[in-house]
Amino acid sequence: MHLDARNRVPELTAVLSLASLALVFGAVLGAVPRGALPRAPDAVVAAIPHVNAAVSAAAVVTILAGVVFARRRQFRKHRAAMLVSAALFAVFLVLYLYKVALEGPAEFPGPDAVYRRVYLPLLAIHILLAVVCIPLLYYVLLLATTRPVSALVDTAHARVGRVAASLWIVSFVLGNAVYALLYVVY
């Protein structure tokens, strides 16, 4: 069977999105047996949230750079910045899933009032945006990698990409706010 990715972008987006979300929710909900993964040294596992905060900050910079390049019609630079952003996201996700699969989600160490009024709303919005971003990101990435730049004007790449980039940035920033509450403030 021949798969023509160019003509199957919506279907591929759906399959990749479902697979990705299944991995994330499977790890968070403990579907991956903790003994199934090799255990890195405790110092490495403990460093993952801090590394991920840096990765998230770098991703915000590369996404913003990609947006600027697109507005300036510097599409080679735009593509490079967005591919770096996608790679940073992949690194973040692999590290996050590894840590969560080993230890479960981090417990909030601060006061209950901050937990209910600040932490949970931030976390909920971050998670919602991350879930919404997944299919949008796959869609624009698949469009961009299956077509020449000149053909993208005939697609929803720019329109969906603007929404995806905006939500992606907010999700990364809120993720770092959650990180700060978990590992810096408390």
Automatic annotation (TrEMBL):
One of the protein's GO biological processes: respiratory electron transport chain
Pfam families listed in its UniProt record: DUF420 (PF04238)
Keywords: Membrane, Transmembrane, Transmembrane helix
Lipid metabolism is among the record's keywords: no
GO cellular component, one term: membrane
GO molecular function, one term: cytochrome-c oxidase activity
Transmembrane domains' residue ranges: 12-32, 44-68, 80-98, 118-142, 163-185
Name of this chain's protein: DUF420 domain-containing protein
